[in-house]
Amino acid sequence: MASSKLLSFLLLSLFVIFIFIDPSNSSPDNNFTEAQSRIKSKKVNLSLYYESLCPYCRSFIVSQLVKVFNTDLLSIIDLRLVPWGNAQYVKPNKTIICQHGEDECYLNTIHACAINIWPDPRKHFNFIYCVENQGLHAEDNLHSDGADAVWKACSAALGMDQKLIKNCYDNGYGRKLLLRYATETDDLHPKHLFVPWVTVNNQPLYDQYENFIAYVCNAYKDKALIKACMPHSLHVTGEKLPIPPVCYAERR
């Protein structure tokens, strides 16, 4: 009888130990990691194709796109900023011509360098936000020294190494980055018609770009878990909204 009880006790003990060491049984840490993986795999691709001196791009970045960082939206978004916009390059030497002049080409390149150096969107967006926000309160056509002073003031305020950005621009790597953005923008299907040009999962929002949060939430399957997607007003109705101002592309 005693040996039977002892055998039962040993079997029960082995069963309990098996439960705790079996990798198929999830721990709280595993559950958290799995939840993170699910969110990552379901993330929505949000892309902004823009140019640095288009006033409507500036306004969108400073007033609208910043909401991604002021809410929990960033946890479900893969954000991509593409600073090329309506610029063009002329073959065979690929001379770059920007819609708003040389200052725009310069700042587009500075943006491209910042994105490359600090790939974390929270890092490079802060820099781009700062540059564009200053531009909203400056003259439309900045002098070269003015454009230079703007980004340097932002990098200093944010503790971002100016030398890294300057080296990227001076050694020509920034231009290479810009030409890659040119190819990406030119390969858009359908072609972009203006900037800011916003896409959600590679689908353009056209003149509904200011309603991008609704489209992001609509594309995300577990929207009930995201506070920014909770308001009833955040839904795609298909109704005609006022067309926001844009910088139209000039086709050649």
UniProtKB/TrEMBL annotation:
Lineage top rank: taxon: Eukaryota
Keyword DNA damage: no
Pfam families to which the protein is assigned, alphabetical: GILT
Membrane-spanning ranges: none
UniProt-recorded name of the protein: Gamma-interferon-inducible lysosomal thiol reductase
UniProt keywords, alphabetically: Glycoprotein, Signal
Species assigned in the record: Hibiscus trionum (Flower of an hour)
Signal sequence coordinates: 1-26
